Amino acid sequence: MTPLTYVRAVDRTDALVRVEKGARFLGGGxxxxxxxxxxVEQANGLVDxxxxxDTIRETDDGGLMIGASVRNAAVAAHPIVRSRYPVLAxxxxxxxxxxxxxxxxxxxxxxxxxxxxxxxxxxxxxxxKRQQGAGCDAIGGFNRYHAIFGAxxxxxxxxxxxxxxxxxMLDAVIHILGPEGERSVPLTxxxxxxxxxxxxxxxxxxxxxxxxxxxxxxxxxxxHAEYRKVRDxxxxxxxxxxxxxxxxxxxxxxxxxxxxxxxxxxxxxxxxRAEAALIGSAPTPEGFRAAIRQxxxxxxxxxxxxxxxDLVERTVVAVLTALSGAHA
Length: 328
Fold this sequence. Notes:
The termini are far apart. It is built from 14 helices and twelve strands. By secondary structure, it is α+β, with helices and mostly antiparallel strands. It is globular, with a radius of gyration of 20 Å. The longest helix has 18 residues, at 307-324. Among the domains are: 5-50, Uridine Diphospho-n-acetylenolpyruvylglucosamine Reductase, domain 2 (2-Layer Sandwich); 222-323, Enolase-like, domain 1. Helix content is 31%, strand content 20%. The strands form three sheets. The chain has a five-stranded antiparallel beta sheet. Strands 9-10-11-12 form a four-stranded antiparallel beta sheet, sandwiched between helices. The chain has a three-stranded parallel beta sheet with strand order 1-3-2, with no helix packed on it.
C-alpha cells in the first residue's frame, strides 16, 4: 500500500500552499482515483478542492463564469446553459452516467486523461504518456479508437471529454491560478498535441489550479448549435467521433460557422479550415461535405481507424444539414 495524505483546502491560498511536490489536486476524483488505484499515476498526497470555485454566475458582458468545482450535472441543468449554450448541456448529458456526472467536476473533466487501453495497462505494454521514451504500443496495435489528427510517432491517443468538445466550439477560456498569480488560456490552446513529449498534456505549470471556465456572450452560432456523439453503444461509452457545431445564416448564406470534433485527436479538434470554407456558401449538404473534406485532408489514419474519416464527414454533414433545415 502506498502512503497517502489527504487534506481539504478551505480557500484558494490554502490549496496552493498545501499542494507540495508529489501531491495532487482532487475534485470529484472520478478519473484520478482510478488512475491511482491502478498505479497508472502516483501521488503522495491529495488536496481536495471540491468545495472551492463551485458557483455559476453571469459576467458583466453577458457571458458565463463556471467555477471549476461545479459538478457536471449542475452545469447541464443550469437554465442559462440550457437556453444560451445548449450544445454544452447536450455534450455533458452525452458523457458518462448520471452518477458520474453528479460527482465529476468541470476542472476534472478538462484534465481527465486518455482512455487508451495501452495507457492503462501498466504491466504488459509500452506507453510514452506513462514513461517518456518507452514507446507506443498503440501505433502497431489495436488502434480503432485512436487519433487521426495531430498524432505523432510518440503517441496516438485521443482526449475523451465530451464537454471539452463543446467548450472548444464555444471559444471557452480557462482561468488558472498558481504561485505566479492568475492567467487565462483559450480552451483550444490548453491541451497539447503529443509531439516529442506526450506526457505533457496541458499548459498547466507545477502547482497551478484551474479555477473557472468562462463562456463568452452567446452569439447566434452558439445558440443555434448541436452536439452529436457516435459510439459503439448508446450508453456510457466514449466517442468514436463527436461533433459540436453551430451555424448562423442570412440571405441564404452561411455567415458564421463553428465546428469542433471529438474522438479524433489528443485535444478537442477545432475544424477551422472547414469553418472558413463555409462562410458565404449556400447551406447545402454538398457544400457542407466540401467544407469538411478540406479539414479531412490533414487526417492521418492508423491501421484500424480509417473509418473515422468517413464517419467524421457523414456526422458533420448530418449535423449541419439538420441545423440549416436543408434536405439531404
